[in-house]
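Task: complex structure prediction.
Instruction: return structure tokens for all chains below.
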Amino acid sequence: MSTHESRTNPTQSEGVRNLSPEDAWDRTRTMVVGRLAFSGGDRIELFPINYLVDRGTVLFRTAPGTKLAASMEHLPVVFEVDGYEAEANEAWSVVVHGVLEPVLDTSEIVEAVALPLFPWQSGEKAFFVRIVPAEVTGRQFRVADPSRWVSQFTGGPRASAE
Amino acid sequence: MSTHESRTNPTQSEGVRNLSPEDAWDRTRTMVVGRLAFSGGDRIELFPINYLVDRGTVLFRTAPGTKLAASMEHLPVVFEVDGYEAEANEAWSVVVHGVLEPVLDTSEIVEAVALPLFPWQSGEKAFFVRIVPAEVTGRQFRVADPSRWVSQFTGGPRASAE
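Output:
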């Protein structure tokens, strides 16, 4: 890849390919923790969430607070999930832009309670919220140095950094 | 925990504790991939980034594009990283609010090149950008169902969901 290509179209760098929406959803279904961002007024809020793909949306549980309030306002949000495939030495990332919607319909709540969706933390999270997608994009790319992706810091070269 | 407590102070749910800034930085140093969000004009952009803690900032490499442009504008951003401690069955999340700054000083660039900071993907990423923190918060919490956190979907109960 030449510097010129990189400058004109950085998303088409060597080893990067876009995922089809179907592939992006399939990968999203394989994971259980993603990150949700939305505008919290004067700044952006970013949280990890434990989710499940349900009815073509990203469903999660929450306690009363910022996320539930945001869902009542149908706030635009972005959700991201990523993973690593050791055999292929490739990582992928899926980004969903959409809006938050509270689950208020009683029959939907009854169904949602039966889903295997466990909150990340054990505090009470009685409410269900959906990310209703407007756009789903995904990319897969070869990992430059797999050890940096899969392993946590266990001493060695990074000790010289702060 | 009563419902009342949950409503008045959801961050103090059972099993959740706040991390000191020092602890939050220590945990951030153990990971290599986090997620960066900032306003992209009409919507929020959210990316995974391969990072390193350096000089009290979160340093990453990037190609010309959205993130580099955002750094030139010193855009406010939020960065999140999380992890799981199997022995304790606890997960943690650190959130850094701050601004993006490009690394333009030649001696800083020379130093940054020597750091063990490998881009997530193998495309050329010639520029260094820092997240200069304004606020660092961290939380640790007991995982309700550890299998939902550590394992990928491999069939079983979730097959009934979409």
